[in-house]
Amino acid sequence: MLISAILVAAIAVGSQWWFSHVITRTWLYPIWAGFLVAIVMGEPITGMKAAAYIQLTYLGWITAGGTMPGNLMVAGVFGTALTIVSGASPNLAPTFAVPFSLLGILINQAYMTINSFWVHRADKYLEEGNITGVRLMNYVPSCITACVLYGIPAFCLVYFGGDFATKALAAIPQPMIDALNVVGALMPALGIAMLLSFLGKRKIIAFFFIGYFMTIYAKLDTMAVTVFAACIGVLVYVFTAKNKEEGEA
């Protein structure tokens, strides 16, 4: 059980840290993260079924503008692990995964908030020309943070069993939850602000208003606007490339 707990903790850290995106983005989805958990816990069939049920629950999951309806990685890893540890039927996996997913939102907000300190430290090293320090700040502190916030809880869940998870969820102080909820409420505004800062360029701001008025006055849905945007993008690219070729000629 000790080895399984360590390996599950490593999967939990790997599914959140930058390492996951370097290899494959499928770490984001319960069907893969849960499958890995099932393998290391010695229950591949049960775990795969549990991961599949969890995946169906979040089939339409998407993050937009900084909003995060659920933490898929936490749902897949913790939900599958708890299903196996408790010996429950795989079709009950979503009932375990959803509370962990919601808690995972708070953990993710804490993770990003703490990591912002390393970013500022990396900026300082960059101003000093210390590239080694920049690399150190990019990799090591974020890994330690991921180990503390994701790895240790995953280890304890597998090693100590489901009772530990229930007690841990109930022991979280309400002020901490409220503080993280405030941070979470600010994240969508930050994401939208970053998006608008990019769209605010003089060359492309017109496209933003075209899309806006198409949805408000023409009553077009997102898919229709996306198709029109893709067509316009292709036309802009073709004519830009043609003008560039003529200029070079």
TrEMBL record:
Pfam families: EII-Sor
Listed GO biological process terms: phosphoenolpyruvate-dependent sugar phosphotransferase system
Main location: membrane
Lineage: Bacteria, Bacillati, Bacillota, Clostridia, Lachnospirales
Subcellular location: Cell membrane
Transmembrane intervals: 26-46, 58-84, 96-118, 139-160, 180-199, 220-239
Keyword Membrane among UniProt keywords: yes
PROSITE patterns for this protein: PTS_EIIC_TYPE_4
GO cellular component: plasma membrane
Membrane-related topology note: Multi-pass membrane protein
Keywords recorded for this protein, A-Z: Cell membrane, Membrane, Phosphotransferase system, Sugar transport, Transmembrane, Transmembrane helix, Transport
Protein name (Swiss-Prot/TrEMBL): PTS sugar transporter subunit IIC
